[in-house]
């Protein structure tokens, strides 16, 4: 973990409220793994007081990418950054996806901005195994395909692709997608992860879920991001023990 001052190279709007920020960050770029995250201080003054956690979306040489949507003052400030601005960034934080195992097919299940860690995981895995990507979104304004391959889309309003949520889409194709050599990697809102957790148990498929949670410090000091262990009467921390967990190991 380092506290690196990174330099913004570009801020690109992908959708009406979704942005992709690219920055020169050679130290973090050399260390980070898919679904690890960074805590970003979005301004040089005392407001906002707390840093904001963001998954690293991709690594490109000495540069890293963050994908985010504007939903508060911190992300609004971040969206208005320009080339040459600097940010103080703490990372890499947390534990990323475990992909160093013997499997032949990866299914990525992403809900909303849960697509954020998958461009980097796609880059790491696409030369080794088959990848199938399932994206769920409210409507066409929230579909992000940047950096992804072999995409299947579900929308709540049916405006694009499958009419329904992304777990229903996976369930509708489970005979074709799921076998003993499949691992599911997922990121998205908690209701989606909870539904996918149930799906993985019922269908006996390995599933790693990257959880989302508000947090302050990002490395376990503030104890502000607890999640309950599935088989022990104790709490784990999303920032330190996660954000990636085996779906069987936590209660959502």
Number of helices: 6
Cα Rg:
18 Å
Rounded mean pLDDT is 94
Order of helices and strands: EEHEEEHEEHEEEHHEHEEEEE
Tell me how many strands there are.
16
Strand content: 35-45%
For the biggest sheet, the summary is: 7 strands, mixed
Low-confidence stretches: none
| Strand arrangement across the biggest beta sheet | 10-9-8-7-11-12-15
Identify the overall geometry: globular
Give the helix/strand class.
alpha/beta
Measured distance between first and last alpha carbons? 28 Å
**What percent of residues adopt helix (DSSP H or I)?**
10-25%
Describe this structure in words.
This protein is an alpha/beta fold. It has helices at residues 26-31, 73-79, 118-125, 166-172, 174-177, 190-202, and strands spanning 2-15, 18-24, 37-41, 52-60, 63-69, 86-93, 105-111, 130-137, 151-155, 162-163, 182-187, 206-210, 226-229, 235-237, 244-246, 250-251. The strands form three sheets. A seven-stranded mixed beta sheet has the order 10-9-8-7-11-12-15, sandwiched between helices. The chain has a six-stranded antiparallel barrel with strand order 1-2-5-4-3-6. The protein has a three-stranded antiparallel beta sheet with strand order 14-13-16, with no helix packed on it. A hairpin with a 2-residue loop joins strand 4 and strand 5 (63-69). The radius of gyration is 18 Å and the shape is globular. The two termini are 28 Å apart. The mean pLDDT is 94.
